Amino acid sequence: MTPLRRVEVHLRPGEDGCHWAREHKAVAVVVDALRASATITCLLQQGAAEVLVVKEVDEAYAYRETHPDTLLVGERGGLKVDGFDFGNSPTELKRADVRGRRVVFTSTTGAQRLVDCLGASAITVGTTINASAVARQVSAKALAENVPIVIIPAGLATDPSVVADEDWLGATILAARMGLPLHQASEAPFQQYQRLIQSTGLLAGFLQSSHGQNLVHLGFSDDIHVCAQVDLITDIVPTLTAVVPLPRGGQGVHLERGTVEHATSL
User: Fold this and answer.
1) What is the CATH number of the domain that holds 108?
2) Residue 26: which of 130, 160, 124 has the closest Cα?
3) CA angle (225 as vertex; 232, 107 as ends), nearest 5
4) Cβ contacts of residue 66 below 8 Å, gap of 6+?
5) Which one of 74, 126, 218, 233 is most buried, by most CB atoms within 10 A?
């Protein structure tokens, strides 16, 4: 019988966090605070039947060729992809009718991290707007299975050297709500971003981040204001329920609004 170990919360960014989630069969929480995590959460709150996350734009187009009723949602460089129905914008989607629809989603970074977590014990999407719901369900899952939790600040897939402060801020909000001990190596960044939240506030932290400033320049200030709200959504935890083979090869992450207790271990 495997002895019980202390369940801890780890903060590990980017591809390193995805690799760690796979290697340790952890419960993974991907945090792309501006804006993929909020957009996916809002899609499910708005009634989308399912969200299929893919890495590449071409994979999204190819999926719709075989499933014509699919909505395409996502961005590159912060802007809606040509031919897509909606961009990666929670405020835009608040005005959209997606009830009962299948959605394929891709983004510069968040989508990449979600697919790269395949092999973890469970994969969820978390951010400030659904922080308490994610924390409750993820901590329950980890304790039930005696596995660690890794919260993954997504960073920037196209430049791993970038420190995405907004993702670390979102990850800190989540970690503070887990009710479980932090791993020793995660204490320093957690305290650093707790101090930033206390000194400037979450919204200012998001706005002052390099990606936040870029989104302001692109005209998406309203999205930042939505993404900076804590517990705006209290009943949605986007959760992996299946791995979907794609028409031209590769795999997609199938997310539904169900609880992590329904997630499939891979």
Assistant:
1) 3.90.1560.10
2) 124
3) 90
4) 247
5) 126
